[in-house]
Design brief:
This protein has 708 residues and is α/β, with parallel strands linked by helices. Helix content is 37%, strand content 21%. A seven-stranded mixed beta sheet has the order 9-8-11-10-12-13-14, with helices on both faces. The structure holds adenosine-5'-diphosphate (ADP) and magnesium ion (MG).
Length: 708
Amino acid sequence: MHNLDSIFKPRSIAIVGATPRPGSIGREILNNLFAYEFNGKVFPVNPRHEYIHSTKSYPSVEAIPDPVDLAVIVVPAAHVQGVVEECGRKGVKGLVIITAGFRETGEEGAKREDAIIEIARRYGMRMIGPNCMGVIDATPAVRMNATFSPGIPPTGTVAFMTQSGALGVAILLAVQKLGLGFSYFASVGNKADVGAMDLLEYWENDPDTQIIAMYLESFGDPRRFTELSKRITRRKPILVVKSGSSAAGARAASSHTGSLAGLEVASEALLQQCGVNRVSSIEEMIHAVAGFVGAPVPGGNRLCLVTNAGGPAIMAVDAADGHGLQIATLSEKTRAGLRSVLPLEASVENPVDMIASAGPDQYERVLDLVLADDGVDIVIPIFVPPLMVEPLEVIRRITRVARARGKPVFSVLMAEEAYYARIPREIERAVPIYRFPEDAVKVAEQMNRYRLWRARPAGEVHVFEADVDRARAIVEKKRRAGGGYLAPSDAHALLDAYRFPLCHYAVVPAGADLRAAAKELSFPVVLKVVGATIVHKSDVGGVTVGIADAGALVEAGRAMETALKRAGVFERATGFMVQEMAGAGPNAAAGSAKEVILGVAQDPKFGPLLMFGMGGRYVEILRDVAFRVLPMTDIDAREMVRSIRSFPLLEGVRGDARVDIEFVEESILRLAQLVHDVEGIAELDMNPVIVTTDRAGCRVVDVRVNVV
Ligand code: ADP
Ligand code: MG
């Protein structure tokens, strides 16, 4: 038996604070338990009443003669602690604390909450809330509605969790209206004990739950969330509305990665990496739930539209553009079939426009033809009811063919309000219905995304040979010295420990002879200013590339000195770096070398955030970057590289050769390993990494590492 069974599958429930007073929460919960016909015993607890709702009432939990599994507590905040203690003594195993006035109100409330957490732990009780609207187990064996929401929640296969009680009521009502049903519903409030992780675990193997939907304001433990949801989404879709944002964007950052790792980046990356279907609003979530409940996951991404009006179909095609869906090309056989059932004026290409006269028969026959086409994976029939055509009959026929063909069909009905309410009542398990084409397209996208995720291999976390001890020692030394930016030699040594390819270089103090430094290097070289407080060197004239010989080097040194003085930063220069040129060697096809950026920023909750993107001096302007959280698998790295807009540049366009993309992927994985192994790296930028057609020519030419 799972320890959340005491909450979701109790055999007896005490309602502490039940009252007969109309409009009170205590009364509503009692009413709901009765109305839903809970399969167990219900004990109202209230010392001021002998009976409530014709049911004997008890003066205290301990006065109940039978064992009590779950206590639902609605007494005022000041009394909750005493009641919880009493429940402990009584041997109650589950608590649902509806009462508000705890952590959400400030310090005093937080103390009260800590006190009840302590008592619950001491007695081994699991607890939902406080400050929540209750829980529902809608499975036939239990039928427990311990919430104060109006209506009778229908039974179905969706387990729903919400952090906000108010949104919970809205969701319950919306779901009822669509004729969808729940397996469970949990409003978790302050999450003093039970939170998203516990519920995910509970629902993972629950046979009554096929879909998990969550409204989250924060993740408990992001690592655990990742691990769990990666596993669960292989079998059941998880839909998440995530509001609120991570704190990473709040602090100022001087690195490229730090400044780009703004609000939301971390949770976005995390949700994407664990196969969660993120939706942007409650409405979108309900649409998606309707899709997952009412249609099979598609076998591909090829979309066909069937319509009786041009405009909505065009909107659907526009909405589908660029979001992973393809407009299907119908086979010759399908088109011939369509020609035989449609009038001459109709279009037999996708979108199939049946013109306004189309009725139930045409919808049924046309839908059957396109669903039979092997080149079609998803169909969106659009129906704008003309006078004289009965919308429900059209939906009934669409439903019938969709079931028979077993492919996903998301129907758009642009009809009068009254019809939507009639559909769930009059058509059994109707296809999902949407009011606008964009809504249906979005759901098709969500389901296609889920298809891709399930088809995606799990991937592996690689462990490369590396000198971990040396890397740790470098960072540790800087930490003991109070942190800050690593000197170029240390930053290079850190990367070298993880086998990143670096350019040969020499650093000379300001004023020393540059020619001597260049003796061990081969020309052409680059001259750069060195100074811990000079962040972007080229901004102040501190980078000169393509220096052909010793004479030019001396000349470049003089010119740089002048430039630095003019920029007012000469005093901040501690020295100069002479570095060999990358991208110019025998393996680099001229013009094909590309600059990319690899970086790390820390998020206080999510840990290291990895960044990859097009690099160089315009990173912040182009913002063509992608983020991921740890752990990083080889598949994650592959997808990350392909997710930026400029990816085609790496593949080679306009006569450029393809650069070594596998080298880039491997570098991302090495960087993930580095930040995983070495503690204390607050920010790291490799910008640019010059990537050539062959890994032999690839080099990290600029690196900054900030240690805390
Ligand atoms: P900063 O980012 O501080 O301005 P960088 O060291 O990144 O300085 O140099 C700026 C630009 O100069 C790079 O984006 C790159 O185009 C070029 N560059 C720098 N070092 C090299 C090198 N060793 N080989 C080739 N190009 C280089
Ligand atoms: Mg740079």
